[in-house]
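Any chance you'd type out a single protein's sequence alongside its tokenized fold?
>
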Amino acid sequence: MMNPTSRRHFFFGTLLAGAVPAAGYGSVPSLRALGYKPFYEKLNVAAVGCGGQGGFILNQAAQTENIVAMCDVDEKRAADNFNKFPKATKYKDFREMIDKEGKNIDALTIGIPDHMHATVALYAMQRGKHVYVEKPLTRTPWEARLLQQAAAKYKVATQMGNQGWSHESIRVASEIVWSGEIGDVTEVHASSSPGTHPTGLDAPPAETSVPSNLNWDLWLGQANMRAYAAEYTPYNWRGFYDFGTGQIGNWGIHTMGPVHMALQLDAPLSVEMVTVEGSSKISFPKRAVIKFEFGARGKMPPVTVYWHDSSLPNTVSAFKVPGMEGEKILPSPNNLADKGRVTAPPRAANAQTATPRPPIGTGQRWGAGGPGVPLYGPGGSAAPPEAGILSHNGALFIGKNGMMSTVDRGEGVQLLPKSRWESYQLPPQLLTRQPGGHMLDWVRACKGGSMSVSDFSASAPFAEWMVLGAIAMRVGGGKLLWDSKNIRFTNSAEANKYVQPAFRKGWELKL
């Protein structure tokens, strides 16, 4: 659970501004020695993971800071960014990079497969490096708790890459809930559209030869050795239990962001898979519905949160919103502009929505229904959500006096029915706003500014309960009772096998 001090700092950060020197922590010599810099000096940033999302975040950091070292186990996937930063030293082993570069590195961006997030982040934090770690932070709840403890112990600036927490709409959504506009919230439904990774597999993918550009041993890292298969890289790892967290880690960590913030959630009492389609012991199912039960939090009543994984209209995981048959449930991104609020740029169109799944064995990204099956819509074209049904990426809050919905990472928010929203006056701003965006928020923290919005003291407890849903999908069958204090399930030995990774010898983690 988030302790009272960190919760207070997260929600009311400016009230603690007096604890920060006017010129930033970097202005104090003793704190400069701890790794902080004045705001006018650039950070020396190293990147672990330089293709895909890892490449995206390193380029965000490069807009204002120096990229001095780069590491990727796949030189082909990293090639474009390797070439873009010719002066940066290149590595395949993150340990070698951090050890050799030493004091030349202030901070790291980490955008790699989920199963290696905690390993790289902890190694860097133990050596005094600030870290920006892509969502969902970790693959297991034990690792999330470890990183939360490590951030406190090593006193470095941290940020999880759940960019929605830096948006205007997520703050407005929280302020609407806290204003009492929709009354006590006792039920929430959040959903995602299908991913582009394999799901519902009956057997492991067939062994193939390791590409010459890939160091498979380093890619596996802490995971137990196994034969290489083209399905695992460069992206499809997300669909396999041993490497990824499926759509709950890919998009759930985004769409549940407003839910966690507005309802000030802590650890759930239980988690349960209530429906499933295409279950598998190897990969995540094709679709599922996960139920989380939370106790009261202060004056907030108990709440039940449902996660509709890979939801599309007319599927088992879609939720029909009572009384809203003619309504579009999810708002448009950045709809707050209509009410005079400055918001984040809209999310870029997803080029994958019209992409059919490639045949298994090609190592390409998949779509929704199986080899050759379009993601959704006639012939594979993108289709809008049906009225009255929650599907795709968003969340619905059901309160005693009304309903509210958010879309994607929290880019948009509205009351339901829409007629209520059109005349609604937004509540006063209670939360501090986030100028500059998610990456710059972390950069400020690295230079001694106020704690980043997704500092591990706030984001690790969120990630910890979210990935319990991945365990529920893997185990299935019945309600799993969660003991947060001891980081274990009280009624399932099988589920407890997946709370902590099974480390390969030599890759164990400890503070």
Notes: The first helix runs from residue 4 to 11. The longest strand covers residues 270-277. The domain at 4-166+437-463 is CATH 3.40.50.720 (Rossmann fold). The chain is about 25% helix and 15% strand.
